[in-house]
Amino acid sequence: MLVAWHIDHGNFGSTNLDGLNVVLAAQVPGHMLQVKWNAAVYLDERAGAEQQQALTQIFGGHAGGVPAVLGSFVGKILGVKTAAIEYRKEGRQRSFSIPGVAGAEIEALLGQGEAEVTIQNHPIAVAPGFPAVVAKSKKLTYRDYGYNWEISGKNGFYSAFNYYA
User: Fold this and answer.
1) Strand 37-44 and strand 21-27: pairing?
2) What is the C-alpha radius of gyration for the chain, rounded to an integer number of angstroms?
């Protein structure tokens, strides 16, 4: 599982986080709600030391809120690295890439009246309170920590989010 966050506007205390990205790669060896995940975290290399510390506090679950809930599913942290993370949002398409490590491209599915198909209140919500747009994966790749994933044509989701503690 790959999850990418792009922070349009945000801060942690007085630390500005506008435009920064974070990626979580999680290997889930069974039912997501019943097993512990092996996870790696990638922090935007453009972040300064204070911003990296803030991102680590937030996405490591130490600041509480949704990331703390997600963190409760993690059994083993494989590592935390800084990386060049490129995020793109174009209409109903979303993508991110970490050169040589990971990448994903998804496009929203259209339902009735050409509206995006959405779901709410799913069990592991990365963005509770916001509908998740159902998408189809054009590509998903991950190569790090001994894993080599190549997945396409599967499902994906994107959503706005608002984290606070």
Assistant:
1) antiparallel
2) 15
Question: At CA 159, angle to CA 110 and CA 44, rounded to 5?
Answer: 130
**Predicted pLDDT at 95:** 97
pLDDT tens for residues 105-142? 999 999 999 999 999 988 877 888 899 999 999 999 99
At 68 the three-state DSSP class reads: helix
Residue 71: which residues within 8 A CB-CB, separation 6 or more? 60, 61
Pairing of the two strands 74-83 and 37-44: parallel
- Spans of all domains in the chain: 2-158
What span, in angstroms and rounded, lies between the C-alpha atoms of 32 and 35?
6
Which one, of 104, 111, 99, lies nearest residue 89 by Cα? 104
